[in-house]
Amino acid sequence: MHLYTYDGTFEGLLTVVFEAYERKAWPTSIEQEQVAQPSMFGETTAVVADEQKAQRVWQGLQKKLSAGALKELYYTYLWEQPGLEQIIFDYSRLVFGTEENIEGNFAAPCVLQVQQAAKQVHREKHRMEAFVRFQKTADELFYATISPDFNVLPLIMSHFRKRYADQHWAIYDTRRRYGIYYDLHNTTFIKLDLPPHQRKNLSGVALDAEEDRYKQLWQVYFDHVNIPERKNPKLHLRHIPRRYWKYLSEKQPHALR
Question: Tens digits of per-residue pLDDT, 189-220?
Fold first, then answer.
């Protein structure tokens, strides 16, 4: 048995792939160092992320995989479900171990698992792009909080940068406790040391005086375009699952008008 631990980054995970080949010792388990439990009956190797080693692995994968397959592999990392590291390692080993293209080899469990994980992450990415609602603060910052099922914040950055190129904005993932901030020129990752009661809402942030009015106008618009005779609750829930309602102004309790 051979346990590899890493720092939780994608570069760290690719470094594990490099080290396993370097040592010719295949992992039976790969875990993040902060949660790993060393085995009493096997060997444990603590891997330090190395950008050059990670880059060599990634370049090797680029030579044998399409851009779509590379994206699916990265999406699997963002999937964050237990066992993702072993899936990515097995997939990489399969790529390096054969001359044939493995992308359609669904008889290999890791290939099917990567595709299924990528689909889930891709779906969550599009839902976040569609359902995020910003609130305007008194200092002209448009701010939104999210708590997606998967770590899609790096994937939605480009969408919001293009859509809101003329505004200062920030999106904060309350589950993973980090965010992205756009200053009209650059987009950067940020970490906020917020008290727990402020991570889920803007209760500690001064909103623009017109923000409540904007929310009411959106709710009025939604009420007028919503035709009662055409209501289809099952279809509605399929397109907008209840867990996303917290992001939508039109789903919040109506203020007195």
Answer: 998 765 554 445 544 455 545 545 445 544 44
Residue 192 is predicted with a pLDDT of 74
Task: Say if residue 122 is exposed, middle or buried (CB neighbours under 10 Å; 0-12, 13-18, 19+).
Answer: middle
Query: Domain spans of the chain?
Result: 2-124, 132-208, 210-257
Q: Which letter does DSSP use for residue 75 in this model?
A: H
* pLDDT tens figures, 9-66: 999 999 999 999 999 999 999 999 998 887 677 899 999 999 999 999 999 999 999 9
Distance CA(6)–CA(178), nearest Å, equals 20
Global pTM? Answer: 0.79
Burial 89-119 (b: 16+ CB within 10 A, else e): bbbbbbbeeeeeebbeeeeeebbebbbebbe
Q: How many CA atoms lie within 13 A of 115 on its CB side?
A: 10
Whether the CA torsion 145, 178, 209, 167 is positive or negative: it is: negative
